[in-house]
Design goal:
Pfam families: UPF0182. It comes from Mycolicibacterium mucogenicum DSM 44124. With about 1000 residues, this protein is of the alpha+beta class. Among the domains are: about 70-90 and about 100-205, no CATH class; about 230-320, no CATH class; about 945-995.
């Protein structure tokens, strides 16, 4: 029976074709146009900051990978269909008038070019888009070197696993995809064009179809054999359920590894069997070979290892896995920088008794006890240093160190006073005002972390607020910089708060009169014009048009604020700027400001990572770095799995002009060396780090959190003990009642553990608990001092020493503490907040727990509505000390006079009325001493509150008078306020006279 001719497809008119073409063009522009605009804007931006070579290298690499993968996949897809078409039978009988294959064949033949070219092009484009995302693997393969370390199983340099194996896997994967697509295309082509017919009892297969399909299946089987070969190497990074370590274990080495070689041999034999069909013309042999390969993969590849695991390994797992656990311990320590040259272990009792003299010998620690919690005092910074509604500080401030007036090292709570676009109100939100008037912040604010301005014996008294050192633009437009270091340019154009709002760009540059808000005097507002090198020129119409499209804002075209000298500042987040110029880095979740060489810079820590380091434990960055601080502000690293990490780069971003500078931090990191070959001259050598910058580099917090989590396991040397987990540690939970995650590590200035001397150093510290217990197991300190940077000291603590949770419970439930805070916070009039619980080694073997206590009275006046330091609580061994100052708390533990001896001249002895060193334009200072009730309304620290009936009744009158005074303050009625003060004086007189 002849083939029925297919019905003709309706043809479009010329006008319809034109309309369809225009519609497709518009759709194409809508899809491609934004990408072209973004690419051009990126080209301008990278050029402006001096990293255009990064942009061009990444772009060229992506394009080359896209073309190679796309052309290859498209070509093999086309080849499979072309072979089927060229070898199609001359005559194909139809099975009937309704033969569906005949209709498909007619449709394909009527649109042959569309199917023959369109389908491969689409598949090639899709494959190219996916492949170009792997540009990192390609560049590391081309530029990777050696580690100088070989794996313990195959003896290959670790550079093979880091740089070569991922690329080989990528190529093999695309070969698989390409051959598979060719097979599918060839199969469909033969089916449509008649090379394969399914009609009848047995169907029919043309010789050409058999030859082509058999060849492609054989190639796939050979590729599978190659995959089995590479699978051997990936076993060294393998994780098995229930196995307490990463890497090949007993089962993997003695069962899975031989199984891979056996399966490789079977795959080669099966490939030969498949290719035999080219000669024997019998498809049963290839079919038997494929079934054999499938059964072998199940029996040999899965069944045999399972039997070995169940009946050989599990009954005696500790001994069987002993050698492989040792491999994992060594590799994990190497991969995470926890080797013997970086980590020093020392025995430490943790509960040694101490005298006042012994504590005094640790003045490097006790005189620097940090009282300011950077997660709590932010509102005080905002209240007293904000100045204008549109300025702001981060929710959590930073800790850094500077030399104090006495030349000694001190830690400071620091913050940049940034512009916050979200705080603009009313006409400040107008496009011109938002983007050309309110463009920058003003000031670097620092507060000594071990002192406050005056002592607050009661939450209604003034005092207990930070003492501010504000480097700002002064009343004459010049920088006022009282400390902690001289600053020439306090204006802040780049920062995380500025960049937190969408469309955070600023239009700057000379265009007529000064336009940018800068500061105010008593009589007028002073404006400013940006004079930095940063910014992309937008003085020409091409640039204005491009940025109008970029930000979907027509004002770029029509606004008169843009002139020939105008520039645009955008991408103003310091971490994002670093990630853009170094796309191979993972940045730390926190950045912090510092004054370096009289410039304000943001310091960003950058990490190089791998996820296939042999035998090293695979770690989730998001899980390892989560703590109560990160959870509180939803600031965590991406969920990235790593088995190798180095803090290889320190980066700075100038807060005024946005200049990004990358410095080599780890000179021995092979991953960094590879990237420095990919992007030459983008990373400066470590020797280029100035002395001033080195003094402000911190040991990075996220790296430390990853390391402490791993040290919880990998401090164990004996593999049998490791397998039992009996000597593991735990990261303690934050004992603070408001916390919901792990306790964060804390930056402190304390006695230098890295050198063992009596001098103080800047450290990052954490306590560690025993495994699933609340007793202390270790204390870890990482040095940030330039001379000992990166040295980690671990004090291992035996016995049952109270951990953070037990210590906090003992402090908070102490009779004197609970009664005093109960009086302060009675009837919820004052909110009590516990600060960070610090763990400090003091007294030749003891541990001092310190927790500042803050109170926020419920009064309406703005000054008293922000947390202030009200008490300091401590515990040494099982004894609690408590009082308004560090001295008082130390006296409560070690006896009268111990506090003065241990701390020296008390920073908190500054009279409450003493003005701070500098005023901030537009800001207010913490209030000086004013009308205050005597401290008798609050019990003395450490003494139970026991009052006679007369005293108790008089105290109630005092409290009632205090309530009346607060109500008068809220009303703003000065007459009523004066009467309330008189009542308070009368009540206090009665209290003093009561017996």
């Amino acid at each position: 029976m002849g083939m029925r001719p297919a019905a003709r497809m309706p043809k479009l008119t010329r006008r319809s074709r034109i309309l369809v073409g225009i519609a497709l063009l518009i759709v194409g522009l809508l899809m491609v146009g934004p990408r072209l605009v973004d690419a051009y804007v990126d080209w301008l931006w990278f050029g402006e900051i001096g990293f255009r070579s990064v942009f061009s290298t990444v772009l060229v690499t992506r394009l080359v990978v896209f073309l190679v993968a796309g052309v290859f996949i498209g070509a093999v897809a086309f080849g499979g269909m072309a072979l089927a078409y060229r070898s199609r039978p001359v005559f194909v009988p139809a099975s009937g008038p309704n033969d569906p294959v005949a209709r498909y064949r007619a449709t394909v033949l009527s649109r042959l070019r569309l199917f023959a070219i369109g389908v491969p092009v689409f598949i090639g484009l899709l494959a190219g888009f996916v492949a170009q995302t792997y540009w990192v693997r390609v560049q590391l393969f081309l530029h990777g070197g050696s580690f100088g370390i070989t794996d313990p199983e195959f003896g290959k340099d670790l550079g093979f696993y880091a740089f070569d194996l991922p690329f080989y896997r990528l190529v093999l994967g695309y070969l698989f995809v390409g051959v598979f697509l060719m097979l599918v295309g060839n199969l469909l082509g033969h089916y449509v064009f008649g090379g394969i017919r399914l009609s009848g009892r047995q169907g029919a297969l043309s010789r050409a179809a058999r030859m082509q399909l058999v060849s492609l299946v054989g190639i796939l089987v050979l590729l599978k054999a190659v995959a089995y070969w590479f699978d051997r190497y990936e076993l060294l990074s393998h994780t098995r359920a229930g196995k307490p370590f990463t890497g090949a274990g007993y089962t993997d080495i003695n069962a899975v590894l031989p199984a891979k070689l056996i399966l490789l041999a079977i795959a080669v034999i099966c490939a030969v069997a498949v290719f035999s069909a080219l000669v024997l013309r019998d498809l049963r042999i290839p079919a038997i070979g494929l079934v054999l390969l499938l059964l072998s993969s199940v029996i040999v590849g899965a069944g045999w290892p399972m039997l070995v695991e169940q009946f050989s390994v599990k009954p005696n797992a500790a001994q069987k896995e002993r050698d492989y656990i040792s491999r994992s311990i060594t590799a994990t320590r190497d991969a995470y920088g926890l080797t013997g040259d970086s980590v020093t272990y020392r025995d430490y009792s943790g509960n040694a008794p101490a005298t006042a003299e012994q504590v005094a010998a640790d003045r490097a620690t006790t005189s620097n006890i940090r009282l300011l919690d950077p997660t709590i005092v932010g509102p005080a910074f905002t209240q007293f240093q904000q100045g204008k509604n549109f300025y702001s500080f981060p929710d959590q401030l930073s800790i850094d160190r500077y030399n104090g007036p006495d030349g000694k090292l001190r830690d400071f709570v620091v913050a940049a006073r940034e512009l916050n676009p979200d705080r603009l109100i009313d006409n400040q939100r107008d496009w011109i005002n938002k983007h050309s008037v309110y463009t920058h912040g003003n000031g670097f604010i620092a507060s000594p972390a071990n002192t406050v301005r005056g002592i607050a014996n009661d939450p209604n008294q003034n005092g207990g607020y930070p003492e501010f050192l504000a480097s700002v633009v002064g009343a004459n437009g010049a920088a006022v910089s009282p400390g902690p270091a001289p600053l020439d340019q306090p204006r802040v154009y780049f920062g995380p708060v500025i960049a937190s709002a969408p469309s955070d760009y600023a239009i700057v540059g000379k265009n007529g009169a000064d336009r940018e808000y800068d500061y105010e005097t008593n009589t007028e507002t002073k404006n400013y014009t940006y004079g930095g090198t940063g910014g992309v020129d937008i003085g020409n119409w091409l640039a204005r048009s491009v940025f109008a499209a970029k930000f979907a804002e027509r004002n770029f075209l029509f606004s008169s604020v843009i002139g020939p000298n105008s520039k645009i500042l955008f991408n103003r987040d310091p971490a994002h700027r670093v990630e853009a110029v170094a796309p191979w880095l993972t940045t730390d979740s926190t950045v912090y400001p510092a004054i370096v060489n009289k410039r304000m810079v943001w310091i960003v820590d950058g990490y190089t990572t791998l996820d296939n380091y042999p035998y090293s434990e695979l770690t989730s960055l998001s899980s390892a770095t989560a703590d109560s601080n990160e959870v509180a502000v939803n600031r965590m690293l991406p969920d990235k799995q790593v088995s190798y990490i180095r803090n290889s780069v320190k980066a700075t971003v100038d807060a005024y002009d946005g200049t990004v500078t990358l410095y080599e931090q780890d000179e021995h990191d092979p991953v960094l060396q590879a990237w420095m070959k990919v992007f030459p001259d983008t990373v400066k050598p470590k020797s280029a780090i100035s002395k001033e910058l080195a003094e402000h580099l911190r040991y990075p917090e996220d790296l430390f959190k990853v390391q402490r989590m791993l040290l919880a396991k990998y401090h164990v040397n004996d593999p049998v003990t490791f397998f039992s987990t009996s000597d593991f540690w735990d990261v303690p939970l934050d004992p603070n009642p408001t916390a919901s995650s792990f306790q964060p590590p804390y930056y402190i200035v304390a006695k230098d553990l890295a050198t063992g001397g009596d001098s103080s150093s800047f450290q990052l510290t954490t306590a560690m608990n025993r495994f699933r217990r609340d007793f202390l197991a270790a204390y870890i300190s990482a040095s940030s001092d330039p001379a000992t940077y990166g040295k980690i000291t671990v004090l291992t603590i035996p016995g049952q020493v109270n951990g953070p949770k037990l210590a906090f419970n003992a402090i908070s439930t102490d009779t004197a503490v609970s009664q005093d805070l109960g009086v302060i916070g009675r009837d919820n009039q004052n909110r009590i907040r516990w600060g960070n619980l610090l763990t400090l080694p003091v007294g030749q073997g003891g541990l001092l727990y310190v927790a500042p206590v803050y109170a926020s009275p419920g009064a309406s006046d703005a000054a008293s509505s922000y947390p202030r330091l009200i008490r300091v609580a401590m515990m040494y061994n099982d004894k609690v000390g408590y009082g308004p100052t560090v001295r008082d708390a130390l006296n409560g533990i070690f006896g009268p006079g111990a506090g003065a001896t241990a701390t020296g001249p008390a920073p908190t002895d500054v009279p409450a009325g003493t003005p701070p060193p500098a005023a901030v334009p537009g800001a207010v200072q913490p209030p000086a001493a004013g009308p205050q009730p005597p401290p008798v309304a609050v019990q003395s620290p450490g003494v139970p509150l026991t009052l006679s009936p007369a005293k108790a009744a008089a105290l109630q009158d005092v409290n009632a008078a205090l309530d009346g005074m607060r109500a008068a303050q809220q009303s703003g009625n000065f007459a009523q306020y004066g009467a309330a003060l008189q009542k308070l004086d009368d009540a206090m007189a009665k209290y003093r006279d009561a017996k």
